[in-house]
Specification:
The chain is an all-alpha fold. Helix content is 76%, strand content 0%. It has one domain (7-388): Sodium/glucose cotransporter (Up-down Bundle). The longest helix has 47 residues, at 162-208. The protein is globular and about 70 Å long.
Length: 503
């Protein structure tokens, strides 16, 4: 592109980072205890803060660097993955998950599930570890995206990419000291930035693109891979479509980042309202990304390559404006930061609340200890980001660890499904083994389904859990002893009524 950035441009970039730090560090004195750091249930968040945090959580820089390339290459199958599954997921969150989650009085779903089964520390540790693995992968992907962006905008070489390290340091600093409160405050600024710039970019691209015939051909159904029927054109596409739906339906409901945002709300009604507003805005952003993807896919002269960031580079070439390129940089960094800081904060919370509960109990809910270990983990994420050759594989493969092992039992816990502890453990082990075998076979036959192997693992987990459940119930005749939140609420209500009757 050969953009010549002035001293003022460089100053604006550093001012952007410093401003984020200033907003975040202003919350340091507010963070009084672990609850304030990890949950904010006892904090008074404004509606704007909660909506902004939901939007910032949902939107990420991967939409441009992973979503757009896969939609251009894969057609409708991946539009289904990035848009239509999110519509279904939005309905599930508002009408199914929120009423179940809002009254759960824990800092994580891992802790809640453990309580259901007599405070079993094994499943709490394993499920928390699996989610940390997923959070590390997502955290690394966001940092890597900023590095790729800096290469394209500022023509920096990746080994000497200053922005990659600068972003990592920024996230570590304000996520460590400010906790969820700092993340939420910066989300307001970051979401405002990308919500203004992304629509502007899409309209500018439309204006800069002279020939829209390819775009209209796609809409008219003249391009086979962009037809809805493309999903059923092969068994592999069907598996990807089903796995993508499971990824959204289970992933959104059981991730700690969603759990935190739901707990910010005080009532079910307010949570449904705020999540409804936030997710509708998110779907509008996704629709804008789909619109840009179709524009680029419709350009006959555009040859989609495999190198990371090729579409973003092509977008910048089409726009060919230094000021817009700088604004685009701010938008992508805001998207990456708004996701990565949440991931980092969640890693710390899971370490403090669920990993340290066993033999390292002296560190239990110790923010300082969690911050130290999380900082070490961030270097692992930085290493992954610098050595990652495939962003899509990095972003999706971590779901193969989390969803078939922890995702299914956590979701069933939310929905109030009562079973036996061996059913949970055997189901998770079966899900892990099945996913590993499926992933190995898919890689061996060079299938694009490898990153979606968790879909098969999820069904294996459910099947094994149901079989063990009915074996213990009908053959061994054992009683189910687990306790749900509804049981706890019922017991507390009975105790309260008994005290009132006595008086």
């Amino acid at each position: 592109m050969n953009f010549n950035f002035s001293t003022l441009d460089v100053f604006l970039i550093f001012a952007f980072f410093i401003f984020n730090c200033a907003v975040a560090f202003s919350t340091r004195s507010i963070v009084r205890d672990f609850d304030s750091y990890a949950s904010g249930q006892n904090e008074n968040y404004s509606d704007l803060s909660i909506i902004s945090s939901i939007i910032a959580l949902a939107c990420s820089a991967s939409m441009f660097f992973i979503g757009m390339p896969t939609m251009c290459k894969g057609g409708f199958t991946f539009i289904w993955m990035y848009f239509f599954t999110e519509v279904i997921c939005t309905l599930l969150i508002i009408f199914l998950y929120i009423p179940k989650i809002i009254n759960i009085d824990t800092y994580s779903l891992q802790e809640y599930t453990s309580r259901m089964y007599n405070d079993d520390k094994t499943i709490r540790f394993v499920f928390a570890f699996c989610e940390i693995v997923q959070r590390i992968g997502r955290f690394a992907a966001q940092i890597s995206i900023v590095g790729i962006l800096a290469q394209n905008v500022f023509e920096l070489r990746r080994p000497n990419n200053t922005f990659l390290y600068l972003l990592a340091a920024l996230l570590i600093l304000y996520s460590c000291f400010g906790g969820l409160k700092a993340v939420t405050h910066t989300d307001v600024i970051q979401s405002l930035i990308f919500l203004i710039i992304i629509p502007m970019i899409s309209l500018l691209l439309w204006y800069k693109t002279a020939d829209h015939s390819g775009f209209y051909n796609i809409l008219n159904g003249e391009v086979t891979k962009f037809k809805a029927s493309a999903v059923i054109s092969s068994k592999e596409n069907i598996l990807i479509a089903i796995s993508a739906l499971l990824n959204s339906a289970i992933g959104w409901g059981t991730r700690i980042t969603s759990f935190q945002r739901i707990r910010m709300c005080k009532t079910t009604k307010s949570a449904q309202k705020l999540w409804g507003i936030g997710m509708v805005i998110y779907l509008m952003v996704i629709a804008t990304i789909v619109f840009i993807s179709l524009q680029i896919a419709g350009l006959h002269e555009f040859n989609i390559g495999t190198k990371e960031g090729v579409i973003v580079k092509y977008m910048l070439k089409l726009i060919n404006n230094q000021t817009v390129a700088l604004l685009f940089f701010f938008a992508i960094v805001s998207l990456a930061t708004s996701t990565a800081d949440s991931e980092f904060n969640c890693i710390t919370v899971l370490l403090d609340n669920d990993i340290f509960i066993g033999k390292l109990k002296k560190w239990y809910r110790n923010k300082f200890a969690g911050n130290i270990v999380s900082t070490i983990i961030s270097f692992i994420a930085l290493f992954l980001s610098l050595n990652s050759k495939n962003l899509f594989a990095l972003y999706m493969s971590v779901s193969n660890v989390y969803l078939p092992i922890a995702g299914v039992p956590l979701l069933l816990s939310i929905l109030g499904f009562k079973t036996y502890l061996p059913a949970i453990k055997i189901g998770s082990a079966t899900g892990f083994i099945t996913t590993a075998i499926t992933y190995g076979v898919a890689k061996y036959i060079d299938s694009k389904f490898a990153e979606f192997s968790f879909g098969v693992g999820i069904f294996a987990n459910i099947a094994a859990m149901i079989l063990v459940h009915y074996y213990y119930k009908n053959v061994l005749k054992q009683k189910i002893t687990c306790v749900t939140q509804e049981d706890i609420d019922s017991i507390n209500a009975m105790r309260k009524n008994k005290i009132e009757d006595t008086w």
